[in-house]
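Before a computer can learn anything about folding, someone has to put a protein's shape into writing. The outcome of that step, for a single protein, is printed below:
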Amino acid sequence: MKKLLVPVDGSECALRAVRHLLAKGSGTAPPGAFEIHLVNVQPGLPGDITRFVSREQVEGYHRDESTRALAEARAVLDTAGARYEVHAEVGPLADTIVKLADTLGCDEIVMGARGRSALAEFLIGSTVTRVVHLSRVPVLLVK
């Protein structure tokens, strides 16, 4: 069974990637013939913030943000009756996505071509471009 990693940030573009996956499969496999792994990656908080809050508060914040970002994608998959696993990670976005794909033994990464906002992409750099550059497996971009 083909394993697919689908990074989700709560954006409409990420949801289009999930819907594309359900509607058309991943190009070489029909829908239902693959194992879906949703992932949300939260960037770590700077030290000048974490210095003043407890580790539990930081973990709770990351957990809440991941839950919120994954909610719509999970609803789409639940409505379709698709089976999937959810992963909530913290770290550098592209590096964490690629590392998780390697760890899980994924055959492909399916992701939206744009993230949350133009400002975020400007400040963080293009996560999509970095994933494509770092990944050892094919990356399917959905616009």
In short: Residues 55-80 form the longest helix (26 residues). The first strand starts at residue 2 and ends at 7. The helical segments are 12-24, 47-50, 55-80, 93-104, 118-124, 127-134.
